[in-house]
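We were asked to recover a plausible sequence for a given structure. The inputs and outputs are reproduced exactly as logged, with field labels preserved.

PROBLEM: sequence recovery
POSITIONS: 342
GIVEN STRUCTURE:
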């Protein structure tokens, strides 16, 4: 199964936040296996493992073990993801949950349709559980997103008398063991905490789903939904073996280690089976690699933010001369000529 991916807006926001806390940007990128161009488009896909590695690097470089919680507290989902913008213009709290699930794959794509959250009645109120396996397997993601949800909700409904009459949340449960920074959990959630639970969840007042958000913009909701639906279609279309190979190649391209054997292993295939499946789609590993390098090189150079030598490195060429020859074969022009007219 292909590795889960996350929208690039998330690691981009975490990178900016960690730098604001004193971490060195280049060291963060190196330790997480990311490159700046990977984060240029918020809706692009990044392997989830790189986002997790970025949390680890950021916590270490900032000497802040509770950084994931603090990142969730400080940065709104609306500033990270189109899904956050859609939730902001939903009419009710219940509708926010429905939109989170409708567009869950635009946040974390685990390879197919899957809900992000689930609401179900329980003793003492309504449980809102995080059901995404990718989140549950990575405590920093749970910390960041539940802290973000709580802080965002308080900011959104803070002036609503009905919300003010509620305790929010009533309790917070986490499947991971209690960390040394429990005090930060207590400060942010301001609710009874349970660690080592059977769920990652918030216990809410039964009346919470009926809360209405401040007046919403129906036109904005339509425009954002149309864009999000288009992004979903792109994800759903990217189920070919070629697309899966490209997703595996993207994070390792700049290392020069874009070889067929490790890519096949990541996909759970033998080298021969991978080549056979690509052949059935009318291509080969070598052709996919070459065309991906061409597409990315043209993208980097046309943006004029990256030099020809930097582009050569980013697409996996150790020698600028070899990159120049390949680029001329692709386009009929040298990298410098293409960049100048782009």
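RECOVERED SEQUENCE:
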């Amino acid at each position: 199964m292909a590795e889960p991916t996350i929208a690039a807006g998330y690691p981009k926001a975490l990178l900016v936040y960690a730098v604001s806390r004193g971490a060195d940007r280049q060291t963060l990128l190196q330790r997480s296996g990311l490159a700046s161009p990977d984060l240029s488009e918020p809706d692009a896909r990044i392997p989830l493992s790189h986002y997790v590695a970025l949390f680890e690097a950021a916590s270490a470089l900032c000497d802040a073990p509770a950084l994931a919680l603090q990142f969730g507290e400080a940065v709104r989902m609306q500033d990270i993801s189109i899904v956050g913008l859609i939730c902001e213009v939903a009419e009710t709290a219940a509708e926010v949950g429905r939109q989170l699930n409708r567009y869950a794959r635009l946040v974390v794509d685990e390879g197919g349709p899957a809900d992000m959250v689930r609401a179900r009645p329980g003793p003492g109120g309504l449980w809102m559980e995080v059901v995404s396996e990718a989140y549950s397997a990575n405590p920093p993601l749970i910390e960041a997103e539940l802290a973000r949800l709580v802080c965002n909700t308080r900011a959104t409904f803070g002036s609503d008398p009905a919300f003010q009459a509620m305790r929010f949340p009533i309790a917070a449960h986490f499947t991971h063991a209690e960390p040394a920074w429990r005090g930060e959990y207590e400060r942010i959630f301001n609710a009874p905490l349970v660690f080592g639970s059977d769920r990652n969840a918030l216990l809410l007042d039964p009346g919470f789903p009926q809360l209405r958000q401040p007046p919403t913009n129906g036109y904005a909701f339509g425009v954002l939904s149309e864009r999000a639906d288009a992004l979903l279609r792109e994800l759903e279309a990217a189920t070919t073996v070629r697309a899966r190979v490209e997703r595996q190649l993207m994070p390792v391209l700049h290392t020069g280690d874009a070889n067929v054997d490790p890519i096949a292993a990541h996909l759970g295939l033998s080298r021969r089976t991978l080549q056979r499946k690509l052949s059935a789609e009318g291509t080969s590993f070598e052709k996919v690699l070459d065309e991906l390098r061409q597409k990315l090189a043209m993208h980097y150079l046309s943006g004029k933010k990256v030099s020809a030598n930097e582009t050569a490195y980013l697409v996996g060429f150790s020698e600028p001369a070899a990159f120049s020859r390949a680029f001329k074969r692709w386009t009929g022009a040298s990298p410098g000529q293409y960049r100048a007219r782009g």
